[in-house]
Amino acid sequence: MWRALLVIACFSVTPAVALEYTCLQYGPIDIAGRIVQQTHAGPPDYESVTKGDEPRTVWILQLDERICVEANRSYPREPLQLEIELALTPEQYRQYRGLLGQKVRVTGELKHGGANYQKRLVIAPGEIEKTRLTP
Asked: What does UniProt give as the signal peptide span (predicted)?
């Protein structure tokens, strides 16, 4: 009897809801998330900090929801991304240091990371503001 119930339960489970996400365009963007730091391996081999590669620390905007970015003439399509690297100037690192770990809204230019960045998506921010949490 238990075996029959188990078989019925397996076939009566509702399939998972398809993931929904927003597709954006490269270019001007206004998006929210949390700023965190990540360390990646740098020169000479870009493989392992523990094996002697220089550590490279970058700031990442962790998104609350997955996004995709449509392809254009210059950049490829990027499906299902949860992180965007922030391409900050030295002045911006100093200016926004207090926002690490905070929920923020970033306004800037969304670009493809390519070989110059750790992440596939990059924002060159014009402004970063702390967001207010809503109940």
From this structure: 1-18
